[in-house]
Amino acid sequence: MKAVVADILEKTLARAQADGALPPWPERPAARSTVDAPKNPAHGDWASNVAMLYAKAAGKPPRQIAEILKERLVDAEGVVLALEIAGPGFLNFRLSPDVWWRELERVGREGEAFGRSDVGAGQKVDVEFVSANPTGPMHVGHGRGAVTGDAISSLLEATGHRVTREYYINDAGGQIRTLAQSVHVRYRQLFGEAVELPEESYPGEYVVEIAKELKESHGDRFLRAPETEWQGPFAALAVERILAMIRGDLEALRIRFDVWTSEKRALHESGAIRRALDDFRARDLLYDKDGAVFFRSTLHGDDKDRPVVKSNGDPTYLAADIAYHQEKFGRGFDWCLDVWGADHHGDIPRVKAAVKELGVDPARLRFTLVQMVNLLREGKPFKMSKRAGTVVSLREVVEEVGADATRFYFLLRRSDAQLDFDVALAKRQSNDNPVFYVQYGHARLCSILRRAREQGIAPPGFDLEALRSLTLPEEQDLAKRILGLPDLVAGAALAFEPHRLVFFLQETVGAFHAYYTKYKTTEKVIGPDPLKTRARLYLCDCLRQAMANALAMLGVTAPERMERPPEEAGEAE
RNA sequence: GCGCCCAUAGCUCAGUUGGAUAGAGCGUCGGACUACGAAUCCGAAGGCCGGAGGUUCAAAUCCUCCUGGGCGCGCCA
After folding, report:
1. For residue A430, is pLDDT > 80?
2. Where are the domains of chain A?
3. For residue A16, what is the enclosing H or E element?
């Protein structure tokens, strides 16, 4: 759509330069200039700023350049209805409605594929997200990263990337040791011992369940055994059971991973960490200090060198991360995306430094940060605390408001801005959630199409002659919005910004609702004029398809019917 | 103290990577159903885009400084 105008502009510029009316531009004009859809409809369908950008190189005022271009307009197909020069030198194009109508053909033809593109050109990418430590079920704070990562993955898939969704399991290290210890305390309690959970431990009920299972399978075998004997099996079972819980939490949100990478197995036990460190050591990227081993991350812009081996001989998290990224890139991805909680942003420089030393172009490792979720209850902030028992599990929210509303809510805002999440509100007033507004619009469209079917009207199909009978500005506007979806999806995918689709949906469905209401008594979709009816039904079907496709990319369902919400209780006298 | 993120309507936030008169939802006030779905729509009120400089035809957007908030700055993960 935009490409039509860009093409005309490019040819017009070439002609003006061939004429000698404009000097050649050192930079490629089309690369720098923009063709935008102006917000003000009085400014036409598409507007370009080339004339202003050209002013310096041409040594002429922008409006004069615009004039030169206008006189030499190359419009082979005759799609430009009007070309106006406005403001400081904007070229405002008004196109023949035929352009939209003709383009609408692809929506019906592409169907569920409409909105998808191939800007990714088959690149193989890895998206790593969630990666919550397997020490307990997921809480609401994790939900945002999960949904965001999943939606980004879907967007990348929709733009021709081959995506691997990956969960990195931090099943090694101190937290897991503490987890096993917590299980052991519970295990001892099951045998009647009066032991308390230490300060640093995991108090959740699920730990007791794991302890019970160990009691049943092993009896009192580990009761008096030294930690070296039970640490392994206790940790292993706990991680296995907790991962199953996490998997369930994610499934409830319709999130599935292709790969679950165990830090313990893939990096520690495999020797990958040792090999990576040996390699770094051989290249003098490591040095010993205070009994520990440091990586010279300052070589590549980090504030300070970071330890990779503790003085007790254990590798640090960074060491694992180095080996992990080496292993990941070794799997042949064109690039990898790490979706991290914003509280880990400080780790980015050191990982980038490491990746560079691994011989990987740092541009191939991309990050997107998901900011914190501010939890509120009835408008009042609160913090989740395991000891205070104020942890709100992701599962309870999803079960209460549904996967659609939860997903939509988490995608409502740019992921690098903080998000307020009112637990009480989310559970109670789920009707306020904008997802219902959007879904209702889809259901309404389905209802119209259903009605037409019931009246024996032929199923909607592309019909240029019929579409030409549509003259309402709202109808052209709707067509334009629908046709903007592919560009929108591509932009959102490359920027890792799924929220753009959310806004597209809200705005598009809003335009439809307004159109519907405005003409519900005068120019109905199903009306007396068979030609217009045919055209409008097709337009509605395109709209429905565009919305359904956008919703699918966000992992939200597009219902064909919705039940009426419960009546407001407050109306009683 | 240093680094990253943020600051836009009463509240929560968009703003198409520098474009023309800064938008939406919620909230407030006032309207619209014997009609394809009222979970809808229409209208009104509401702004020094945190502040000050700078870059240029053009700045909410880019640069510098300041103010105010969040998060980091472990031999935790």
Report:
1. no
2. 2-95, 433-554
3. helix A2-19
A396, with CB counted inside 10 A (0-12, 13-18, 19+), is: middle
φ, ψ at A492 (rounded to 5°):
-65, -40
The token pair that represents A266 in the structure block: 């893939």
Say whether pLDDT at A571 is over 80.
Answer: no
Does residue A184 approach strand B to less than 7 Å at its CB? no
The pLDDT value recorded for residue A56 is 79
A32 has pLDDT over 70: no
Question: Quick check: A427 CB within 7 A of strand B?
Answer: no
pLDDT band at A497 (very low <50, low <70, confident <90, very high): very high
Q: Are strands A306-309 and A292-295 parallel, antiparallel or unpaired?
A: antiparallel
Q: Could you tell me the CATH superfamily of domain A2-95?
A: Arginyl tRNA synthetase N-terminal domain (3.30.1360.70)
Residues A440 and A509: their CA atoms lie apart, in Å, by 9
Strand B and chain A: which residues 10-39 have CB closer than 7 Å?
A: 34, 36-39
Please write the tens of the pLDDT for every residue from A392-411: 889 988 998 899 999 999 99
Q: How far apart are CA A47 and CA A486, in angstroms?
A: 19
Query: A282-340, pLDDT tens digit by residue?
Result: 999 999 999 999 999 999 888 889 999 999 999 999 999 999 999 999 999 999 999 99
CATH code for the part of the protein at A433-554? 1.10.730.10
Q: What is the ipTM of this complex?
A: 0.94
Which of the nucleotides lies closest to A536 (Cα–C1')?
Answer: B36
Residue type, A182: S
Q: Which nucleotide is closest, CA of A61 to its C1'?
A: B57
Q: Give the Å distances, CA to CA, from A572 to A22, A337, A487.
A: 74, 53, 49
Q: Six-digit token pair at A4? A: 């039509």
What residues pair up with A380 in beta bridges, in sequence order? A377
Amino acid at residue number A10: E
Residue A321 beta carbon within 7 A of nucleic strand B? no
- A267 CB burial (10 A radius; 0-12, 13-18, 19+): buried
- In this complex, the answer to whether residue A86 has its CB under 7 A from any atom of chain B, a nucleic strand, is yes
Q: What 3 state SS string does A236-302 have?
A: HHHHHHHHHHHHHHHHHCCCCCCEEEEHHHHHHHCCHHHHHHHHHHHCCCEEEECCEEEECHHHHCC
Residue A526: phi and psi, rounded to 5, are -95, 100
